[in-house]
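Posting this for the archive.
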Amino acid sequence: MILMVAGKKKGDEYSSRFRTKGIKVEQATGGFQALSLVENNEYGLIIIVENMADMAGFEIISLIRTTHQKQKLPILFVLPGDEKLDQQKLVDVNTCLESTANFNQIMQETKSLLKLKEI
């Protein structure tokens, strides 16, 4: 199962598209909600599409990494348009895409991170 951390509109769109490909998705529209879900559930991948109103994406990632290793719980981060690429912050991210990434790029990276042959 994937945890999609994104604003309502983008989260609904991407989650719906993943579900049509047969992938189970849970959504979080805030950083604190995401952290609670990660604490209480098992996920194969976390996708963070943008900064949340209550917490920046890199902060969410940093807090997740205090309890979940990079190898055991991959994180795909779609860098917000206003965010500068900071190599030091990317240490905890498995894959980072630019804000201009489309769903097909996200799906391709998802397949790679989940090691699925067909979705």
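The mean pLDDT is 89. Residues 8-20 form the longest helix (13 residues).
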